[in-house]
Each structure stands twice: as structure tokens, then as C-alpha cells.
Amino acid sequence: MARRWSCWLLALGLLGLGWFWLGPRRASPASPAAPPLIGIQSNLQQIALAKAHWLEGHSAGETRPLEPADLTPYLLPGFWKRTVAGERYRINRQGASPEAELTRAITGAAKGTRLRLGADGQIEPVPADTPGP
User: Fold this and answer.
1) Residue 125 covered by a domain
2) Does residue 56 lie within any of the structural domains?
3) Count of domains for the chain
4) Which residue of 35, 67, 77, 133 is 20 to 30 Å from 16, comparing CA positions?
5) Do residues 100 and 87 make contact, with C-beta atoms less than 8 angstroms apart?
6) Taking the complete model, does pTM exceed 0.85, yes or no?
7) Is residue 10 situated within a structural domain?
């Protein structure tokens, strides 16, 4: 009886493994099939994490604006040269979400649109009346 159960469990495990390897694939942010907004959101999240890591090693009272060179040690090599759709990234001050400004229209957003991470970690447009950094 125990042998029968172990055979069934083995068969189910193999089916599960097959589904994992051969099942439907989701587009990753690095995939060319992924919508550009997903890649931009991923880059903004990486910048936000790098800011948090930078802040751990520095005084919370430090108010100078952060530069790309400050965050470079916390990001992948070449991060600032790699863009999804030619967007420009703004680190912004401490406590403010990083932004991306689109240099051309993409699916779901017009040229010149500024995007940032919302409180829930999702990408959202910056209201037009919000001043830049």
C-alpha cells in the first residue's frame, strides 16, 4: 500500500515539475515582450532600494541631493546607461520616490510623462502641477 502511494506521489511530483518547466511563461522586465512600463517600474524599484541602502550608511540628517554616483555601488554595473525606452531617471531627495521622465511616447504613456512609485510600489504618473526636483 505504501509503495502505491509513493508511486502516485512521484507521478504527481513529475507532473508538477513538467508544468513548472513547460507551463506558460510570464514576461520578465528584461524580456523584449514585456511592456516598457514594467521595466521602468523595475528600475524605479531598484533606485528606491539603492537609496534605502545608501541611507543605512549615512546620516539621516544629511540633506544634500543624491547623485547617481552615490547609488552606483548599490546597483548593477552600467545601470545608469541602460534604459527601457530612453527615459531619464531622477533620484529625488531623501524620502521622495524616484521618478522617470519619458523621452518618447510608449504604450500607456505620452512623451514627457513623469512616472514614480506609489506607496503601494506600483507605478503612477506624477501630477502635471508637481514641480520637478
Assistant:
1) yes
2) yes
3) 1
4) 35
5) yes
6) no
7) no
- Classify residue 35 by burial, with Cβ atoms within 10 Å: 0-12, 13-18, 19+: middle
Is residue 103 very low, low, confident or very high in pLDDT (cuts 50, 70, 90)? very high
> φ, ψ for residue 90 (rounded to 5)?
-115, 125
Residue 7 to residues 10, 40, 125, Cα–Cα distance (Å) = 5, 47, 54
Q: Which of 97, 107, 119 is nearest to 43 (CA)?
A: 97
CA 130 to chain centre: 23
Domain with 118 in it? 36-133
Encode pLDDT of 116-132 as tens digits.
Answer: 998 888 999 988 766 66
pLDDT digits (tens, 9 = 90+) for 6-38: 655 555 555 554 445 455 444 444 444 458 899
